[in-house]
Amino acid sequence: SCFKIMHDLLHFDMGGLYPAQFKANIPPDICLKIVEEVQYACCFWGDHLRFLHGKGKQCSIDIQEKVLSFLKESFLYWLEVMSILACLPAALSALSATHALSTETEVTQLAWDYQLFLHQFSYPISQAYPHIYISALPLAPRHSLIWKQYIDQVPQTLTILSNADEYWPVQLCVITGHEYSFTSVALSPNGSQIVSGSFDNTICIWDAVTQQPMGEPLQGHEHSVTSVAFSPNGSQIVSGSRDKTIRIWDAVTQQPIGEPLQGHEHPVTSVALSPNGSQIVSGSSDNTIRIWDAVTQQPIGEPLQGHEHPVTSVAFSPN
């Protein structure tokens, strides 16, 4: 029903601003122009797709046909609404769900290309939806699917005569937020989250799709964070620091679990978790390696000695 509502009610220039008005002239009550049923359909169709996936179901042929029609006919109008409602992160999330759940090749190709479009132009679109047509679409690469699909449908837009990009850049986006340099990053097992450590002594968790921070920075280390890692099931984060300690965090509540693991005589340089998540291994500038019980948070045996200089990296074998 969400796709039917969007098919029936979405149209060009949902806010009545194109082409002249930009952020300074956006009426504060512009959201009132979007009726509630359209707001709901636009904001939550991606959640409904994910609900199907959570039930172990694939999208039916009928739903995939509706998704394909939506991507080919109404996508930019939907993007207008998501900009007006300040919901562009949810738009990226919905496209990610579409790309992941569909078995229709054309749907997955379009969804991925449209994600790249949003990654590239989310800032101007978030400022004022007319930028979708005034700057974003005209500047999209000539071989991008979104440019091919929509450029001829947009009136009064720019024409790039020379030096237009042909393909999307390799770099999707840049994540910023730490006060000082990043020192370490790790991706959650399901690819949905990124964790980062920094010289600012904090750890940040990011949504891998929207690149937005998830909650506040994790604070507790007294010196720079040198290494971060996710547990195999993604429920915990382990961090090592120049304060000579290792900390375990709940990835959902973002709270520390237990007390800091202490034992190294110099900064911790690297941490890793065993494949079953039961053990943590750490390397240090004190030239040693330590193995810890991830549950009791106690050291297992004596430090592993043999290196004559700082240990810079540690890892477990698959078994």
Automatic annotation (TrEMBL):
CDD domains: WD40 (cd00200). Keywords: Repeat, WD repeat. Pfam families: WD40 (PF00400). PROSITE patterns: WD_REPEATS_2, WD_REPEATS_REGION. Signal peptide: none annotated. InterPro entries: WD40/YVTN_repeat-like_dom_sf, WD40_PAC1, WD40_repeat_dom_sf, WD40_rpt. The keyword Signal does not apply. WD repeats lie at residues 175-216, 218-259, 261-302. This is WD40 repeat-like protein. The lineage of its organism: Eukaryota, Fungi, Dikarya, Basidiomycota, Agaricomycotina.
